[in-house]
Design a protein that fits this description.
4-stranded antiparallel beta sheet, globular, 284 residues, 11 helices, alpha/beta, Alpha-Beta Plaits, Rossmann fold
Length: 284
Amino acid sequence: MAEAGPKILIVEDDLDVAEMLNAYFRVQGYEVFTVNWGEDGVRSAQTVSPDLVILDIRLPDMDGYEVARRLREERRTHDIPIIFLTEKRDRADRLQGLELGANDYITKPFDVQELRLRVRNALKRVSQGSLTNPVSGLPEGAVVDERLEEAIQMGGQAFVLVSLENLDAFREAYGFVSSDDVLRAMSVMIVNTLRETGTPDDFLGHLSATEFILVVNPASSAPLQARLRSRLEQSLDYFYPIKDREQVARGKNRLFVMTSSLESNAEGFHEIGPVKAELVRLKK
């Protein structure tokens, strides 16, 4: 008998959508459980122990935010990845979901292939213990924290933050696959630039999904930062369709890069948290 694939719990009150997702993911090799009410979703998560939950925000008895909050409160369901399925596009709605520990969101009407990739990436991240980013393959999470802590303790190194801004707007306009292509290309360009100008001891990882953190020699920090901004900014327009490039160049939601840097022995920075906060504050 073939081994069952990862278990997905779908909490969706639209019966047509629920049935379509159930059939689609079963064909993809997943073991699928479907419920239509929030209370049933909480109960099923406890009994089924799914590997991932696809959760609609608008449910008959309680909203998806409440379901997510209750899942995060329980020890058995605390770490299950959650992907919100919603018609809401407002930034505040997305932030509310992320604050509750949701791993991702997708808005209706959605591309089922895009949802499949989001599910795959979320499960891959869990299987790797959140040690590498599923899109770029670069370190993230505990690996990055350990390297930053080591740099703070040793001193004599610099942190360079490279942040890709407005990726949410790009993703909504051009899709999940295209936004992944941007992040993947950025990571390759940063790796190549670091290889050209850095040393074997330099480190590159993710501070967040759209923020790259580099640990380098302070002497190379400023020229590396300038080179990265120039190279990355020049490449971003090529990710837009030709017909959109002129309009996007004038738009407020176009992709752009922000950077900041900080020396590891800067006075007062002896812990990871303040270093991260200061790097984000200094973005320019």
